[in-house]
User: Which sequence fits this backbone?
């Protein structure tokens, strides 16, 4: 019983680890930073409207470049 | 209205991509181990996934404050959307191998064919393989349904869009059976990545108190922006050579790939 529960908990944890972090930890960390940026700029609506999408594009650029084929 | 249509399209497309992957496994299990067990495993997985949407989704919508829900779910959508978009760009630019459903099908059939001779009417291996395939691929669909549905208080619409994708992909799968490689999976993945990322940015902003110009129409602007960015990044990545690599192998164009 305990063994089954342990295996289920491990599988559950592994699912979320793979889902959120996996081989792209920079996406997870960058997203947290993005949320922080959006909340930090909540009183400056213009900055929020411009900076959050731009920061998302930069994060995509960084992560895509990091995933390029290497020798 | 705009966000409802986009939400339904995003959930439908995301569910269709995942269901194509699940269908490959179900077909392999059905052909090698018998259709009865494969279909029973599929049906049970779909029921479990539907229960998960109800059990987790309904309390989520009613108990969690909407601003908190939107920030958390927006972040979740961003992680998922950026991962899909990144993968689709890398595949379209030749930096990552395309997802080959034919190869996956052949490999799964090869593995399942061992010990298939003389199997009983109800085959536990076929049942478990089909169940696991549909359940694991479906979990991502559940997360997308919950995220998009809960953040916009349209859980029913999101669930219906996912169900429609299951029916459409299942129907097409029954007709074309083993020609799943014809599905332009990477182009679909790119579209879904764009939509999830756009919704993610929108909901994170909404949750943080941003007044998007044009309200829901801002999602369309974000979608257009990320489509352009994906096209530019794909073109740029085709020019990026690996360190020490003299020439890049010509990669298939996005439009060519969509036609496969």
Assistant:
């Amino acid at each position: 019983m305990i063994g089954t529960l342990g295996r289920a908990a491990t599988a559950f944890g592994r699912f979320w680890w793979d889902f959120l972090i996996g081989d792209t930890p920079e996406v997870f960390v960058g997203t947290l930073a993005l949320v922080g940026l959006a909340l930090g700029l909540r009183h400056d609506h213009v900055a929020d409207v411009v900076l959050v999408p731009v920061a998302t594009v930069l994060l995509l650029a960084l992560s895509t470049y990091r995933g390029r084929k290497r020798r | 209205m705009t966000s409802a249509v986009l939400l339904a399209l995003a959930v439908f497309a995301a569910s269709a991509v995942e269901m194509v992957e699940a269908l490959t496994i179900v077909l392999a299990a059905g052909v090698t181990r018998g259709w009865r067990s494969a279909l029973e495993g599929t049906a049970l997985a779909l029921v479990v996934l539907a229960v998960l949407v109800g059990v987790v989704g309904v309390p989520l919508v009613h108990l969690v404050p909407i601003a908190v829900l939107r920030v958390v779910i927006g972040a979740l959508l961003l992680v998922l959307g950026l991962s899909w978009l990144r993968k689709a760009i890398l595949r379209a630019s030749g930096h990552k191998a395309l997802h080959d459903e034919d190869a996956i099908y052949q490999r799964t059939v090869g593995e399942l064919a061992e010990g298939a001779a003389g199997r009983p009417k109800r085959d536990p291996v076929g049942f478990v393989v089909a169940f696991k395939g549909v359940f694991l691929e479906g979990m991502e669909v559940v997360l997308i349904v919950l995220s998009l549905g809960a953040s916009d208080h349209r859980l029913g619409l999101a669930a219906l869009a996912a169900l429609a994708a299951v029916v459409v992909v299942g129907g097409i799968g029954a007709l074309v059976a083993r020609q799943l490689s014809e599905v332009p999976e990477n182009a679909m993945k790119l579209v879904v990545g764009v939509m999830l990322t756009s919704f993610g940015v929108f909901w994170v902003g909404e949750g943080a108190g941003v007044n998007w110009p044009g309200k829901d129409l801002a999602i369309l602007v974000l979608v257009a922006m990320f489509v352009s960015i994906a096209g530019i990044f794909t073109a740029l990545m085709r020019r990026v050579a690996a360190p020490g690599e003299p020439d890049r192998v010509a990669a298939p164009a996005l439009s060519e790939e969509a036609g496969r």
